[in-house]
């Protein structure tokens, strides 16, 4: 009788410990999974150094004493939606700013023109959009990641180079946006950068080669 | 001490019920969450696929990590809560794992929707769902998950949760506070729900206890009633046996008393006898008849109470019955100096369907009482008929001593007379009116007091349902029988076997039969009766009638009759017995008797029975 009770108690204890162990393993798995997701969202694109001065051969016309804001975007990158949202908020306060949106493009991606990112880009206040069909602008400004923003001041100096979202695809205040605002407000003119969180734009050469392959 | 134990048991039962109900609810919520988590994982995957189906490298695309995270991480998050909800529903750990899983699913959903503030409402909805458990600890677990998540991310990656790169502990507190704010109300709701469940359990236990108490009372009362019923049945049986024995034991000597009194009156020339002797004989006869009346009343009441009294429905003349009763009592009334008058409504039909014997009995009783309790003045019997209802109504009005309302109330109770002094003054058992009322009710009517005032008289009303008919009256039949008796008042040549063990009764019966010139064979037990009857039948000269006493030594009348019938004896046997209880007639007929007469012997009835038997025997002989 007592033996049976002890046996049951042991079995019960073992079962409880098994449950606790399962809960522990599960908790670790969930925390790890959510941590990995957070890590992914915080992983920036490839670092790139933009030209410190406005390139003279740039096809985009820049008047003297004009600040120029460039946004490089991939038409299908979901992370860039958050960048566009931040850009919309920024332009709501910087009404004299006329951004140039350079869209990653190849000749064989006609359907991209219908994406929401393209249409939202075209709707940005005062914005001009360009299809960088030959990748010339991307190469000229040495940009590798969608959502990359470049600011050139009135003297044609690059004062900001980087992203304006804190996490991939996440809207909200972040360091990159704050740095950009400071420079637009003229509180500082020292060059600064911030990691760009978006899809890689890729190499045009590779894209063309792939497109031409039957 | 007993109250304390009951109270402890009640408390224990309330706890059991409360915990049982709570567990059922929590098991149900576990199952609900197992489904909800599945739906949420699917929702996460669909949302991820809708918001960010692919990530891109140039023009190369691949499944977005959000989609993989929704599928893989979502499955991991949901797996353990679902497994626990299915395998160990209702367990505490299940609820807490479900709470943590639900919060993790919220986090995943917020991630895949790009941290949209709207998605954060999923957290608040989840807490509301978790409150269904009615367990505040579960809500605290959920809050702890949210608080730790916000605290850790607020310190290390504030922009991932607050949209700002600045580490601001106040903001962490603010976010946690709003979650706590909601949960304060949810925890209060849990408390209210549990209190309601507690009250419900208390009410259920009270009902259970009440039911148990009622059941115990019912069982107890049923057992008591069963005992009482058994006692009543035993008492009833004892009463019936007593009545049967009393009836038998009184009727047997009464037969001898009345019979001998009759012999004394009829033997020799009574006109030469001294007046005192004749008066003594008449006194003996009158008192014996009175005693017999009392016995008959008791037996009637017993039959009525046992539900064995039946009434006939034959054509009879109400006027004849009234006149007959008046005729019987007129001499007594006249001897007291009072008038006995009869009045008949013109609407009174000539014939109605009823039981003439019982009608006569009731009317005789009422009129007899009226005469008895009237010292001067008159007694009026008036018969009427309500044609529309088919009711015969007879009023008996007297100018007697009358009754008070209190006396009237007790009038129809058995063994009760209006006043005990009445018994002393007028005699009687107090059964007559009770029997009358019950007989009237058996005939679909009633006996009631119409009016009565002390010193001025009483009017009794007797009404029965008696539809008007046309036909021969029982009086006509009776008259025919009497006529038959008077014209054939001799049994000359009739051979009668008398089986009777009582010497006195033997003498009476033999005396009567011999007076009627019958050829009598006397035996004193059933065995001899069987032998004698069989011999007579075998010799081709069967008895015209066998008068069989039913209670005899060696072999009783029942046994003897059955033995004869078993041997094929077909000739008439008349039961002549002092067993006059209800059912005795049936018992005799069942044993094989053709007719049934009770003691003391009514000479007319005896003669009629013998003549019927002789006629029946003649038919049987002729048929052979």
Description:
The complex is a heterodimer of chains A (214) and B (624). With 214 residues, chain A is an alpha/beta fold. Chain A has helices at residues 2-42, 80-93, 116-123, 136-140, 175-184, 204-212, and strands spanning 68-73, 99-104, 128-132, 148-152, 158-162, 192-194. Helix content of chain A is 41%, strand content 14%. Helices cover 63% and strands 12% of the residues of chain B. Chain B has 19 helices and 14 strands. The model of chain B is unreliable at 473-488 (pLDDT under 50). At the A-B interface, α1 and α6 of A face β1, α2, α3 and α6 of B.
Greatest interface (CB-CB under 8 A), with counts per chain: A-B, 47 and 42 residues
N- to C-terminal distance of chain A: 80 Å
Low-confidence runs of at least 5 consecutive residues of chain B: 473-488
Largest sheet of chain B: 5 strands, mixed
Global outline of chain B: elongated
Fraction in beta strands of chain B:
5-15%
> Taking all residues together, what is the mean pLDDT of chain A?
86
Biggest sheet: strand arrangement of chain B: 4-6-7-9-8
Q: What ranges of chain A have pLDDT less than 50 throughout 5 or more consecutive residues?
A: none
Secondary-structure blueprint of this entry?
The complex is a heterodimer of chains A (214) and B (624).
Chain A: H1 2-42, E1 68-73, H2 80-93, E2 99-104, H3 116-123, E3 128-132, H4 136-140, E4 148-152, E5 158-162, H5 175-184, E6 192-194, H6 204-212
Parallel strand pairs in A: 1-2, 2-3, 5-6
Antiparallel strand pairs in A: 1-4, 4-5
Chain B: H1 2-51, E1 54-57, E2 60-63, H2 65-87, H3 92-112, H4 121-130, H5 136-156, H6 159-162, H7 169-266, H8 275-305, E3 314-316, H9 318-336, E4 339-344, E5 352-354, H10 356-372, E6 378-386, E7 391-398, H11 405-409, H12 420-426, H13 432-442, E8 446-453, E9 457-465, H14 474-487, E10 495-499, H15 503-515, E11 519-523, H16 526-538, E12 545-548, H17 557-566, E13 573-577, H18 584-591, E14 595-598, H19 603-623
Parallel strand pairs in B: 4-6, 10-11, 10-12, 12-13, 13-14
Antiparallel strand pairs in B: 1-2, 3-5, 6-7, 7-9, 8-9
Helix pairs in contact in B: 1-2, 1-3, 1-7, 2-3, 3-4, 3-5, 4-7, 5-7, 7-8, 7-15, 8-13, 9-10, 10-13, 16-17
């Amino acid at each position: 009788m007592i033996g049976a009770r002890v046996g049951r108690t042991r079995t019960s204890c073992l079962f409880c410990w098994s449950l606790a162990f399962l809960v522990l393993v599960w908790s670790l798995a969930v925390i790890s999974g959510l941590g990995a997701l957070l890590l992914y969202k915080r992983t920036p694109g490839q670092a790139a150094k933009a030209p410190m001065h406005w390139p003279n051969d740039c096809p985009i016309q820049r008047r003297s004493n004009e600040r120029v804001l460039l946004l490089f975007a991939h038409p299908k990158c979901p992370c860039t939606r958050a960048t566009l949202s931040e850009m919309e908020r920024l332009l709501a306060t910087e009404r004299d700013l006329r951004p140039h949106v350079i869209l990653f493009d190849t000749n064989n991606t006609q359907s991209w023109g219908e994406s929401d990112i393209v249409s939202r880009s075209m709707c940005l206040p005062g914005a001009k959009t360009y299809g960088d069909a030959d990748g010339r602008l991307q190469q000229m400004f040495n940009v590798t990641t969608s959502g990359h923003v470049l600011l050139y001041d009135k003297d044609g100096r690059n004062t900001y180079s980087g992203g304006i979202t804190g996490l991939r695809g996440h809207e909200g205040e972040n360091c990159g946006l704050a740095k950009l605002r400071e420079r637009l407000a003229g509180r500082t003119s020292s060059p600064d950068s911030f990691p760009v969180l978006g899809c890689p734009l890729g190499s045009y050469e590779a894209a063309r080669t792939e497109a031409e392959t039957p | 001490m007993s109250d304390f134990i009951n109270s402890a048991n009640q408390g224990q039962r309330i706890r059991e019920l409360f915990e049982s109900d709570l567990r059922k609810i929590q098991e149900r919520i576990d199952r609900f969450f197992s489904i909800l988590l599945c739906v949420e994982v699917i929702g996460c995957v669909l949302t991820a696929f809708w918001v960010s189906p692919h990530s891109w490298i140039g023009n190369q695309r691949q499944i977005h990590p959000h989609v993989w995270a929704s599928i893989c991480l979502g499955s991991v998050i949901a797996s353990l809560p679902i497994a626990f909800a299915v395998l160990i529903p209702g367990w505490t750990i299940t609820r807490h794992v479900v709470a943590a899983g639900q919060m993790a699913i919220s986090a995943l959903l917020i991630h895949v929707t790009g941290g949209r503030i709207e998605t954060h409402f999923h957290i608040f909805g989840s807490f509301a769902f978790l409150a269904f458990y009615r367990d505040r600890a579960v809500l605290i677990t959920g809050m702890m998950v949210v608080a730790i998540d916000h605290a850790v991310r607020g310190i290390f990656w504030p922009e991932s949760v607050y949209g700002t790169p600045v580490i601001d502990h106040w903001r962490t507190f603010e976010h946690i506070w709003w979650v706590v704010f909601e949960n304060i109300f949810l925890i209060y709701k849990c408390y209210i729900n549990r209190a309601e469940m507690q009250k419900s359990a208390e009410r259920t236990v009270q009902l259970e206890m009440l039911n148990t108490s009622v059941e115990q009372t019912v069982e107890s009362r049923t057992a008591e009633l069963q005992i009482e019923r058994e006692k009543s049945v035993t008492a009833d049986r004892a009463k019936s046996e007593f009545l049967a024995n009393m009836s038998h034991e009184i009727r047997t000597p009464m037969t001898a008393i009345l019979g001998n009194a009759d012999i004394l009156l009829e033997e020799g020339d009574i006109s030469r006898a001294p007046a005192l002797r004749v008066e003594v004989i008449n006194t003996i006869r009158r008192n014996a008849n009175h005693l017999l009346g009392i016995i008959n009343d008791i037996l009637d009441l017993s039959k009525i109470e046992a539900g064995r009294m039946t009434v006939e429905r034959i054509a009879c003349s109400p006027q004849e019955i009234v006149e007959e009763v008046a005729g019987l009592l007129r001499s007594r009334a006249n001897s007291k100096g009072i008038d006995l008058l009869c009045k008949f409504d013109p609407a009174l039909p000539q014939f109605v369907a009823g039981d003439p014997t019982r009608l006569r009995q009731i009317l005789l009783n009422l009129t007899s009482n009226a005469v008895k309790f009237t010292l001067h003045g008159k007694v009026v019997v008036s018969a009427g008929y309500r044609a529309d209802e088919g009711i015969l109504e007879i009023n008996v009005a007297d100018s007697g001593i009358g009754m008070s309302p209190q006396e009237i109330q007790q009038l129809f109770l058995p063994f009760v007379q209006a006043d005990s002094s009445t018994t002393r003054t007028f005699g009687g058992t107090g059964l007559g009116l009770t029997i009358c009322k019950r007989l009237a009710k058996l005939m679909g009517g009633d006996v009631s007091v119409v009016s009565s005032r002390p010193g001025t008289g009483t009017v009794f009303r007797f009404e029965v349902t008696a539809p008007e008919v046309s036909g021969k009256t029982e009086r006509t039949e009776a008259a025919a029988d009497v006529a038959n008796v008077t014209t054939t008042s001799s049994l000359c040549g009739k051979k009668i076997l008398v089986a009777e063990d009582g010497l006195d009764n033997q003498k009476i019966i033999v005396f009567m039969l011999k007076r009627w010139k019958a050829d009598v064979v006397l035996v004193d037990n059933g065995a001899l009766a069987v032998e004698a009857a069989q011999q007579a039948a075998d010799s081709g000269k069967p008895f015209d009638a066998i008068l069989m006493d039913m209670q005899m030594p060696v072999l009783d009348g029942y046994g003897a009759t059955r033995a004869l019938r078993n041997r094929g004896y077909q000739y008439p046997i008349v039961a002549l017995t002092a067993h006059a209880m209800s059912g005795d007639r049936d018992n005799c007929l069942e044993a094989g008797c053709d007719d049934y007469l009770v003691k003391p012997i009514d000479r007319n009835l005896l003669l009629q029975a013998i003549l019927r038997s002789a006629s029946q025997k003649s038919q049987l002989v002729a048929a052979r």
